[in-house]
Amino acid sequence: MKSCTEIFAEKMKELREEHNISLRGLAEAIGISKTALSYYENCQRDPSLPAVKKIADYFNEDINYMVGDSQERRKKGV
């Protein structure tokens, strides 16, 4: 079974690629360092709850989806 950190890392990378945004671009948009985002995406550090919220909000996704508690994504444009 995957850990919450592994699931979050996969979702973050998937959403970044889907939105065609680099780690640097995401970092600048949400105010979290590129290094921290890289650590999160590579499962080298657990993100804080505020970081998860910022990333989820940026992609207009629910935190529960980001950590694997829900498989449902928000509808685009909502």
CATH architecture: Orthogonal Bundle
**Helix- and strand-based class?**
mainly alpha
Q: How would you sum up the global shape?
A: globular
N-to-C SSE series?
Answer: HHHHH
Could you tell me the radius of gyration in angstroms? 11 Å
CATH superfamily: lambda repressor-like DNA-binding domains
Can you offer a commentary on this structure?
- With 78 residues, the chain is an all-alpha fold.
- The chain has one domain (4-66): lambda repressor-like DNA-binding domains (434 Repressor (Amino-terminal Domain)).
- The protein is built from 5 helices and no strands.
- It has helices at residues 4-18, 23-30, 34-41, 49-58, 63-66.
- The longest helix is centred in the N-terminal third of the chain and has 15 residues, at 4-18.
Brief sketch in words of this structure:
By secondary structure, this protein is an all-alpha fold. The chain contains five helices and no strands. It has a single domain, classed as Orthogonal Bundle (434 Repressor (Amino-terminal Domain)), CATH 1.10.260.
Fold blueprint:
Elements: H1 4-18, H2 23-30, H3 34-41, H4 49-58, H5 63-66
Features:
single chain; 78 residues; mainly alpha; 434 Repressor (Amino-terminal Domain)
